[in-house]
Amino acid sequence: MDLKKIKETVIKCTKCELATTRTNSVPGKGNFQSDVIFVGEAPGKNEDKHGEPFIGIAGKRLTESLENAKISRESIYITNVVKCRPPKNRVPSTTERSACSEYLQQEIAIIKPKIICILGNTAFNSILGGNEITKYRGKIVKKDNQLYFLTIHPAATIYNQKLIVTLKNDILKLFDLIRDLKNGKVIPVDIDYTT
Ligand code: URA
Ligand code: SF4
After folding, report:
1. Closest ligand 2 atom to Cα of 16
2. Of 39, 69, 58, which Cα lies nearest the Cα of 177?
3. Which of 61, 160, 184, 189 has a C-alpha 20 to 30 A away from that of 11?
């Protein structure tokens, strides 16, 4: 299995109801050698129209936060919990999330990121079973030998302008961590789900 194959499968996928309302599926995009995978919730209107993740206003906020940390969009990998837009941007159901989860698992297995950056509550809940991202953002989680970094969804900065500072600072922290990981430093884990 390679990323191209996953992309082709996602484009044709009809495993859940969202296939009947989407315009385009939105496979993950970016550098397959990235140290980090960013995971959002689901495509929105712009993403559905063009078949690319995070290209609308939320995407601009994410790009801005990455650029603030001197990181280009091309150097990282971005994907979503579900690859098709839910009607009226509703939160994807648990059925839709589990139907789509195999693609995210495959993306992770291929890229083998040093850390996964969780963007917002839906990704936090779907991947780690968490809630209240505003309480846990900025934290580092370890589960089944995989590191995760938690932050807010970039769309949250649209409704609350002050949150762009939070997002930017979290992204700076994330890339500091990645630098430390590459230098072989031991990362202090805030929450350890490993049993
Ligand atoms: N919001 C998301 O969660 N993902 C996108 O791709 C765009 C907006
Ligand atoms: Fe398939 Fe995922 Fe789209 Fe559902 S959301 S149709 S599982 S690609």
Report:
1. 4
2. 69
3. 61
Q: What is the pLDDT of residues 128-174, one digit of tens each?
A: 999 999 999 999 999 999 999 999 999 999 999 999 999 999 999 99
Atom 2 of ligand 2 has which residue's CA nearest to it? 100
Per-residue pLDDT at 194 exceeds 80: no
φ, ψ at 140 (rounded to 5°): -110, 130
Give the residue extent of every domain in the chain: 3-182
Atom of ligand 1 nearest to the CA of 122: 3
Distance 70 CA to ligand 1 centre (A): 22
Q: Is the pTM of this model over 0.85?
A: yes
The one-letter amino acid at 43 = P
CA of 150 to the centre of ligand 2 (A): 24
H/E stretch holding 59 = helix 57-68
